[in-house]
Structure formats: structure tokens, C-alpha cells
Amino acid sequence: MQSRIELLSPAANADVAMAAVNAGADAVYMGGPAFGARSKAGNAMADVERTVRYAHRYAARFFLTLNTLIYEEEMDQAVRIAWQAYEAGVDALIIQDMGLLEAGMPPMELHASTQCHISTPEKARFLEKAGFRRLVLARELSVQEIASIADAVGCEIECFVHGALCASYSGQCYMGCYQNRRSGNRGECSQSCRMAYDLADATGNVLQKNRYLLSMKDLNASARLRELLEAGVCCLKIEGRMKDAAYVKNVTLSYRYALDALMRENPSWQRLSQGRVETVFVPDLQKSFHREYTDFNLGGVRKEWAFPSTPKATGQAIGQVLEVRGCSPGYGGLKILVRLHPDCALSAGDGLCYFDVRGCLQGGVLERAEAGKDGLLAVLNGPEEAGFMPMVPSVLYRNKDVAFERGLQSAEFNRKIDVHVVFAAAEAEFRMEDDYGNRVAVPVDKGSLVLARDERTALAAFGRQLSKLGGSSYSLASFHYEGEPVYFAPAAVLNECRRRLVERMDSCRERRYSVRADVSLPSGEGLAFPESLLPSYRLNVANSWAARFYRNHGLEVDVSAFELKGESGIRKKGNLLMICKHCIRFQIGQCTRKGKGGPFPGGDAAADLYLCRGRDKFALRFDCAACRMEVWSV
């Protein structure tokens, strides 16, 4: 049995989306005019429609994100956007708010966003029966847990494989709203987990000061793709709807190559889209923006998943700082003697960074590098104050590789579909066909043709002009002249016919792969919601339609989303603001279970710890039986 495997790439806008398709994405996801979980990544519906057509040219799919909570007065607009997406040919909507299921959605495919926090087979079965064709699973799951969910349902399973990680369970973070009224559930995440905090115990003793204790490393599951596919995942998702085209192209192409290699080994795994990527560019995940990488909990083994030293991108470790030297008189720069890794070369303009003697990330731009017998002397425009100097020894990182970026910017990414062209002399007609059964034809005015005096030269001219498909989506795999007589056609005639063939094939493919079956939502009668959540605001009910949905499925709830509580409700003590798989006790060596450092060697293992930042203080409570951490307002 064959499985269709989809590589899903993010897009901030239409240009990035088309760049992702050119780099090998089988599908792209992008925001529309509103409600897209990235408030700064909205797009006009005209751009959505343009991108849909381009994706469908390669049998790739387009998903619109409509995955924020919808307030009561916004529901009409949200439903209107959904219908506009349906009319534009969008293949599916990614949603979080269950109220949309009650508000008159178009008959199209729905995907349950990762904001729904799907982490159990029971919840997965419920959402499948409620009408979702695809489930975007919680990022905290192990491969084994993913497999158990995939075995429990018949719908499609999607999971993240690359990009930034949230400290909190997705859809269950209220910390930004508590701190500054910006909610991730409304597309306005304030990056609370990327802020510095002091860590204190119950007596007020400060254990760590000004550390990024909730800042997660970035996900890189490239080494686990086979396991995920064998577990039943059909869609591998790259995070990054705020990233630029360079990032998206590099990461997409890297995963494209990795997946293609797996598919060559296992023919039962088949690509969803069509066309091959033609480029000389060699991707490298280490070169694009990233914090230190982790495969998070996919292996089912707890590790240090946070990077408390900095929330910024360190990039790739390139060598070791051996010595810090003074600069030449009158030269305002920093000289670092470094032993580079053997496969590393520096270029003027590279961004270099390091941790200074206080443990803070510092850096600068490389001005020049001088070879020496002890190593490479790098001169950069970094800070000269003693407290900001690199530790010796320490790791030197490069977070901007200008040679790689120049190569990426200049490289062409062409996605090509093989076509076969026939000229039927009797009918004076060009016919083009691809390998997927798409056929188009263009007639030729016989008055523009003359009998060939040299048949070989005339036939060569046909093939030469028809092969000039460089600016199109196609590559000429074969040309055949069919029948008699042999004509000579002027280059202008052949060029015009080639142009019309390409236009017609584009339209043919766009129309064919825009065809979708209408999907009707089931009634859901007798379907009981599988979870009993307390406090109720964790259901994220932001409108009366969502309340009706849950009541129809056995939960008596009202419109009680955290974002609607008002100042006194949001800022009150005792609000559960985050639930995290990441555990600070484990990170600092105080795990109460068998793991890092063994059991907590002393003190009260059950006692709360506290995060402090300005006026805010948060209690950390540890559910060791469930192996998770909770963040509460106090």
C-alpha cells in the first residue's frame, strides 16, 4: 500500500510561498487577511489566490491558517474569509476555534491546528469524528506516542519537524496575556518564554539570576524522518511563517533531499506533488537562523531542551577561542586567536559570536582574518571592554555566513516537469503532454509554414526552439515530428507556439489540481468530548458558537477564554499560565526521578520554585508523575 508523503513549508507571503514550492515543498501554509496566528503575516485574498494557482501547477497544495481564537463580533468576518478561501481554491483551512464548526463553514477540508493540543488517542478520535481530515499533533510527543495516535484514527497525521519550539503546550500558554495582554492564541505572542528571569526557591534564595530559563532550543528532526513516517505521519511540517525566503528555501530543500532519499529506499512512500527541483545550491541546516538544535521529546528520553544562556541564534560552532589579544594602535576592534574546525573558512562580513566572561552572548562582524602558526587571528568589530571579552577557552560561533548567503541568493531554484511535444504535420498542430496525463494542443497556421528544403535542418530547428523552456515550469523530455510533409517553421512561429503551449499546460494543470471534493461536517450527535479540563478557560471558548459546540458534546461551558477575563481576572493569583514538557528542575540538576544526576540529592523535592521578572512572580510546580512542569501566577 502506497502512502503519500507531504513536505509542508511556511510562507509569510506569496513570494515566499512560491519560493518554497520551487525548493520542493509539497504544500505551503500561509495566513489570509486576518486570524492567522501570526498577526504580522497577513495577506490579501488576491495574493492567496495567486499562490494557490502556482502551487496547483505542481500538484502542490495550499492551506490557509485561520487558527486564532475568534471573538464574538469577529465571527462573521472569519466565516467570510473561510468562504473566500473556498472560492479561491484553497485546499484546506487550519483552525483552532471550535466555534467555526458551528458558524456556517464552507464544505472544505479542515485541519486541527497544533493550538488544539492533540496529545492523546481519545482527543484525536474525537476531533476526527467532529469533522477534521487532518490533525496537527502536539510537539511534545514522542515517536511512540505519535504512533499510538496514528493507529487510533483514520485521518491524516501531521507533525512539526523543524523550527522554533514553544516552552508551553501550544494553545495552553497564557503568560504573554498575563504579562502584557498579548496572546499567542490571538496571533500576538509576546515571546514570554524568550525573556530572562531570576530563579528562586521558596525562601527567596536566588538560585540563578537573569537566565533564559524557558527559552527552548530549536527543533531539528531531520534524523528522525524515517521513524516518523513509519509511525504513520503523512505530513512533515516546517515552522517559520515569519521567516524570509532564504530561510525557507534552505530548510525546505534540505528536507526535500532527505525525504527523497528515504523514498528511493522505500517505494511505498510517494511524493504528493510533482516536478523535480533543479538547482546547484547545496542546503545546510546549520547555516540558517537557529538556536542550538534538539529533536525534543521524539526519542522519549528527557534531555536539556532549553538553552538558558541566550534566546538568540548562536549559529554554528566553528572553532575554539585560544586567546584574546590587544588591537593595533588606533584600530577599534577585537582580536581573537581561534582554532577553526578543519572544514571551516571565514569571510569578511561573517557574523561571529561568543559567550563573554559573564556568560552573555556577544559578537560582531569579521573585518579580516590573519593566518598564524598558532591559529587564525580574527579581527572583528566587537566590544573591547574587559567584561565583554570572550572566555578562554570557549566556543566561537558563526551566526551569519556571508559566502553561504551569497550563494543562496544567487542560486536559481527551478522546479521542472518533463513534457513531451509532438508536431502532427497532417493537422498542423503542436501537442504537449506531461507524465501525469495532462494534454494540451496548439494549432499552427499552415500559411506560416513552408516545405523544408533540408529536412534535417528543419527538424533540428523545431527541437531547438521548443526546448527553450527555461522560464517555465517545464523541461522538454522529447520531441517527435509526426507524419508528412516536413515543414520549415520560422523561429518566431515556433516561439509563439511554445509560449501558447506553456500557457495552456499551466492552465490545464492549475485547473486539474484545483479540483477537490466538497466535505460536509458530520452532525456530531452523541459525540462526547473526551477531556474534563479545569480551569475551564483552557478550553479557549471565545464566542457563543464555541460554547455551543462544547455543550453539544457534553460540556456545560460559557464564553470564558482567558483573553476575555478583564484586568482583574487576568492578573489574579492562581492562574495556570503554562504547562510544559520542559522542566527547569531537570535543567538545573534537581530531577526528582531517575534521570539527570539521579534523584534530587537534597531539600524538599515537592517545593515550588519561582520565576521572577520585574513586578511578575510565577510559581513553578512539578507534576513528576506526569513528568511535566506548570507555571502559575502568584
Protein model, in words:
The chain has 634 residues and is of the alpha/beta class. It folds into three domains: 3-273, TIM Barrel (Alpha-Beta Barrel); 314-410, Thrombin, subunit H; 417-512, no CATH class. The protein is 24% helix and 27% strand. The strands form five sheets. Strands 1-2-3-4-5-6-7-11 form an eight-stranded parallel beta barrel, surrounded by five helices. The chain has a six-stranded antiparallel beta sheet with strand order 9-8-28-29-30-27. Helix 2 crosses helix 11 (491-512) and helix 4 packs across helix 5. The longest helix has 22 residues, at 491-512. The model is unreliable at 595-603 (pLDDT under 50).
| SS content category | alpha/beta
Could you state the CATH homologous superfamily of the largest domain? Aldolase class I
**CATH topological fold name of the largest domain:** TIM Barrel
Helix content: 10-25%
Name the quaternary structure: single chain
- Estimate the global geometry from the Cα principal axes: globular
CATH class of the largest domain: Alpha Beta
Radius of gyration, in angstroms, nearest whole number: 28 Å
Strand order of the largest sheet: 1-2-3-4-5-6-7-11
How many E strands?
A: 30
Largest sheet: 8 strands, parallel, barrel
The total tally of domains equals: 3
* Assigned CATH architecture of the largest domain: Alpha-Beta Barrel
Alpha-carbon distance between the termini?
A: 54 Å
The low-confidence parts are 595-603
